[in-house]
Amino acid sequence: MADFFTYSIYFSTLFISVGLIKIGYRNQALKKNDQGQRFFIFMALLVMVLIAGLRYNVGQDYIGYTFYYNERPYLDESIGMELEYGYTILVNFLNELNLKVWSYFMTSAIITYVLLFYSFKNYKHLLYLGVFFFFTYGLYFFSFNGVRQAVAMSALAVAVMYIQERKIFHFLGIILLGGLMHKSLFLFFPIYYVVDRIKLPNYFWYLAFFISLILHFIPLSLFIDISYISEILSGSQIDYSGFAESMNSDEVGGVTLGYLVRITIGFFILSYYNTLIKINKNYLPYYNLALIGIVLYNAFSHILMVARLNNYFLFFNIFCLAFIIHYLNCKNQKLIVHSIMVFFLILFGYGIYANENGCSPYQFINF
Fold it and tell me: What is the pTM of this model?
C-alpha cells in the first residue's frame, strides 16, 4: 500500500524531470543552440536515475536481482544457469569493485534513461512529453521490475532512430549491445528493412484492432501449438520455454478496468495515425511498432510470453502520444491536451496505489 512519502517521491520525480527537460529544450534554447541547455537535461536524468538506483526492495524482481548479484549462481557449472553475457559481465565487474547491489540498479538505470533521452535526438522539443508518458504509461515502474528488458527496450528506440538516419552499422551495434542485456532484442534485427518502408492503410489497422478484440475471447490453442513454441525456445541461450509451458492454451482473456483503459488508449493513438503520418512521414516507424503492440495487447494481453515480448512494441506508444499532444498543441486544442494529461496523471497515481510492478511503498537504501 502506498503512503504519502511514496506518492511524494514519484510525483516529485515526474514533475521535476519533465519541468527540467521543458526548460532545457524549450524553443528559445534550441534556436540558440541545437543542444539546448544540457545542464537542465542532465539534472532531469540525474533525478530519474537516483530514484531508480537508490531504491530498496522496490520492484517485483528486486529480491531476485539481489540474489543473482550477491550469489552469482550462474558461476556454478553444476547448476547450468545461463544468463546474458552483458548482464553477467556487468554484475561480475561491480562485484570485483566490492560494490553492493544498488550499483547494479544505478548502472542499469543510467543506461536505460540515457538511451531513452538519446532516442529523442531528432525530437528534442518532444522529450519532455516522452518522459511524461514514460512515467504515466507505467514504463518507469516497469524499469524497476524488468530491469534488463528495460535497457533493451530503450536500445530498440535508439535503433529505430538509426533506421531513419540510414546508419546500418549503428543500428546493428545498438541491437547487439542491447541484446547482451536481454537476448529477445535480437528478434528485431530484420526491422531495419521494413519498419519505415511499409505504410498500411488506415482501414487495415482499424480492422486489425477490432479483430484483436474478438481474439481476446478465443482460446489460443485454436491458432498456435504451444508445445512447438516451447521446443523452439528451449534451445535459446536463456531457456524461455518455461513461459510457453506455463501458458494455458485454452485460456481466454477477461475484461478488467485496466484492460478497458489500455484498449481505449490504443484506439486514441490509432485515431490519429492517418493524420500524423500525412503531416510527418518520419512518424511512420514509431506508429507501425506502436500499432503492432496495441493489436497484440488487445488480443493476447493475458498470455505472459506474448505480453513480455509485446513490451518492446508498447514502448513506442510514448512516442505516438508525444506526437499527438504536439499536434494538438499546434492546433491550439488546449482543453483536449489538458484533459489527456490529467487522465494520464490519474493513471500514474492509480499505478502507485495499485503497487504496479512492485513500486510501492518506496524506500531508500541504507548505506
Answer: 0.92
